[in-house]
From TrEMBL:
GO terms, molecular function: catalytic activity; iron-sulfur cluster binding
Protein name stated in the entry: Radical SAM core domain-containing protein
Location of the Radical SAM core domain: 176-431
SUPFAM superfamilies noted in UniProt: Radical SAM enzymes
Native source organism of the sequence: Saccharolobus solfataricus (strain ATCC 35092 / DSM 1617 / JCM 11322 / P2)
InterPro entries found in the cross-reference section: Elp3/MiaA/NifB-like_rSAM (IPR006638), rSAM (IPR007197), rSAM_horseshoe (IPR023404), rSAM_sf (IPR058240)
Domain of life of the source: Archaea
Signal peptide: none
Transmembrane segments: none
Length: 502
C-alpha cells in the first residue's frame, strides 16, 4: 500500500557509501560479522544493495554474504501490519527478491558463492532461494569464518548451517567500523526463557565497560554522537541473577558514556520486573542521560498476555521474582516508575497461540483496560505470535487472519485507540514547541485528520472481525490501476455514507 516513491525517498533511502562503494555506517550485526571475518584474516567490504555490482566488479569478490532481517515479511510487526492491511507482500520481502535477482546475475557472471545470514535467516531455512548456496543461522563468531573459507575454496558446505554460540568473551571481537545509529551491544542473551523468543538459547553475557567504550569510540570518531544500547533487558546489564539489578554497573556505564561526550543515550528493550526491583536505577539512568519529554526513550517491553494459562505455559519467568498473580500490578507500577523518568514503553503482546481461546483474549483485554485506567504514557501493540526459527515454538503454524481468536479484533481496537490518544497527546506537545502559529495549526490539523482516519480503519476491523482488511488485498498504489481502484473505493464508500472521516 505504500508507493515505491515513499519507500525509496523517505522510509528506506539508500545508505551512503564512499567512492569505492563501502558503506559509511552499517547495521551493528553486520559490523560484528565484518570484525569476525577481519580477525580471521579475510579481506571484507561491507556495502549496500545499490553498490553491490560496483564492489563485486572492482574487488575480485569470491563470496557474497547477505545480512537479512525480514526477507519473507513475516517478522512480527511486518506480519501484523501486512495482515491488517490486506495481507499483501511486504516491502522487505520485495526488496529481498529484487536483491536476489541482482545476486543471481552476479553469480552467473563471476561464479561466486552466496551465503545468507542474520536475524531473519530462519525465514529461509525451509525454502531457501535457489541462488543462495548456504543459509547460516545463529551467531557468526565460532563457525562463520570456516564456512566462508570453504566457500572460497570451492569445498562442500551443507545448505543450512547452525552457528554455535561463543562461550568466551575473547571469541567476540569489537566492531572496527561505525554502526548505524551508534548501536553498541551491552548484553547478549536473556535468561527468562520465553518460549516464543529467539533470544532464549543464548548464553547470557554482559560486555565489560572497556569493551563497550572501544566500540563507542569507533562510532564517535566517525562523528556519531548518539548511542543506542543493544540489549534484551537494559536492567540485566552486569547482573548475576534475575532477582537483582546491578545498580552500580549501570550507573558506571551511563556516566562513562556521558563523560565520553555522548549526546543522547537510547536503549532497545527493558523488562517490567527489574524496573520494580530497582526504581532508583531507572531514576539514575534518566538523570545521567538527561531525558525529558522531548528527548525521551521508548523501549520495547514485553506485556504478552493477560491469560494465566498462556502466561504460565509460554513465559513463566517473565515476572520473576514475582509471578502471574502480580502481573497486572507489576506492569502498572513499573510503567509509572518509567514514565516519571521519561521512559515511555512500547508494550508488545503475543496473541494467537494454538490453544488460545476467546476467553484468554478476554483476559488480555481486561489487562489492557486495567493499564488504560491508569492513563500511562505507553503504547500497546497486540502482535500475532510468530514461530521464529530459533524459538521453542518454531514448529507452530504461521498466524493467519482466520485462525486468530475473534476477540483479537476488540483487543486490537482498544489498544490502537489508546495508542492514538497517547501519540496525539505527545504530537501536540511537539507541535506546540514550534513558535510559528501557522506551522502549529497545520501540524495539529494533520494529526487530527490522519488519526481520525486510522481510528475509523481499526473500528471497521473490529466490527468485521478483521474481514474488512481483505478489501485491500489487491490494492497496489504503484500501478495506475491501483490508484484508480482506490479512488473508486473512496467514491463507493462516499455513496454508501461510510466515508472515513477525512
Ligand atoms: S524476557 Fe524478552 S528477551 Fe527475555 S526471553 Fe522473554 S521475550 Fe526473550
Amino acid at each position: 500500500m505504500v508507493p515505491r516513491f515513499f519507500m525509496d525517498r523517505i522510509f528506506a533511502p539508500p545508505m551512503s557509501t564512499d567512492k569505492e562503494g563501502k558503506a559509511i555506517v552499517a547495521p551493528y550485526p553486520l559490523r560484528k560479522v565484518e570484525a569476525v571475518l577481519a580477525k580471521s584474516g579475510f579481506n571484507v567490504v561491507v556495502t549496500t544493495p545499490e553498490k553491490l555490482e560496483k564492489v563485486v566488479t572492482s574487488k575480485g569478490t569470491k563470496v557474497i554474504g547477505i545480512n537479512v532481517h525480514d526477507p519473507r515479511g513475516i517478522e512480527p510487526v511486518s506480519a501484523k501490519l501486512s495482515m491488517i492491511f490486506g495481507g499483501g507482500e511486504t516491502w522487505t520481502a520485495k526488496f529481498f527478491d529484487e536483491l536476489g535477482e541482482k545476486v543471481s546475475k552476479l553469480k552467473e557472471k563471476f561464479h561466486l558463492k552466496v551465503v545468507v545470514g542474520g536475524a531473519g535467516a530462519w525465514q529461509l531455512e525451509k525454502d531457501p532461494p535457489r541462488w543462495a548456496d548456504v543459509i547460516f543461522l545463529g551467531h557468526a563468531e565460532v563457525d562463520f569464518p570456516e564456512v566462508v573459507k570453504k566457500l572460497e575454496q570451492g569445498e562442500e558446505v551443507p545448505r543450512v548451517v547452525r552457528g554455535r554460540y561463543p562461550r568466551k568473551l575473547d571469541e567476540i571481537p569489537p566492531i572496527i567500523n561505525p554502526s548505524r545509529g551508534g548501536e553498541v551491544q551491552i548484553t547478549r542473551g536473556c535468561p527468562r526463557g520465553c518460549w516464543f523468543c529467539s533470544v532464549t538459547p543464548d548464553t547470557f553475557i554482559s560486555f565489560p565497560l572497556d569493551y563497550i567504550m572501544r566500540e563507542v569510540e569507533v562510532n564517535m570518531k566517525a562523528g556519531i554522537k548518539d548511542v543506542s544500547l543493544i540489549t534484551d533487558d537494559m536492567l540485566l546489564y552486569g547482573a548475576k541473577r534475575l532477582n537483582e539489578v546491578n545498580h552500580d554497573a549501570i550507573v558506571r556505564l551511563y556516566a562513562e558514556l556521558k563523560r565520553a561526550g555522548v549526546d543522547y543515550i537510547n536503549f532497545a528493550h527493558i523488562s517490567a520486573a527489574p524496573v520494580k526491583l530497582s526504581p532508583k536505577t531507572v531514576k539514575a539512568m534518566a538523570e545521567i542521560a538527561e531525558w525529558n519529554e522531548e528527548k525521551a526513550v521508548s523501549p520495547v517491553v514485553g506485556l504478552e498476555t493477560g491469560s494465566e494459562k498462556i502466561f504460565n505455559k509460554y513465559m513463566k519467568m517473565k515476572a520473576f521474582p514475582w509471578n502471574y498473580t502480580n502481573w497486572k500490578d507489576l506492569i502498572v507500577e513499573s510503567t509509572a516508575i518509567m514514565n516519571e523518568s521519561y521512559i515511555f514503553p512500547c508494550y508488545t503482546m503475543t496473541i494467537g497461540y494454538p490453544e488460545e481461546t476467546d476467553k484468554d483474549v478476554e483476559d488480555s483485554i481486561k489487562l489492557v483496560e486495567y493499564i488504560i485506567d491508569h492513563e500511562p504514557i505507553a503504547w500497546i501493540f497486540p502482535l500475532p505470535v510468530i514461530p521464529m526459527g530459533l524459538s521453542k515454538i518454531r514448529d507452530n503454524p504461521l498466524p493467519a487472519l482466520e485462525r486468530l481468536p475473534s476477540r483479537y479484533w476488540d483487543l486490537l481496537y482498544l489498544s490502537w485507540k489508546y495508542d492514538l490518544k497517547i501519540t496525539r497527546r505527545l504530537g501536540n506537545t511537539i507541535a506546540y514547541t514550534s513558535k510559528n502559529p501557522f506551522i502549529r495549526s497545520i501540524v495539529t490539523y494533520m494529526i487530527d485528520k490522519v488519526f481520525k482516519t486510522i481510528e475509523w480503519y481499526f473500528e471497521r476491523l473490529k466490527e468485521t472481525k478483521g474481514k474488512s482488511a481483505l478489501e485491500y488485498r489487491e490494492l497496489n498504489l504503484n500501478t495506475t490501476y491501483g490508484v484508480v481502484w482506490s479512488l473508486f473505493q473512496l467514491l463507493r464508500l462516499a455513496f454508501s455514507s461510510s466515508l472515513p472521516p477525512s
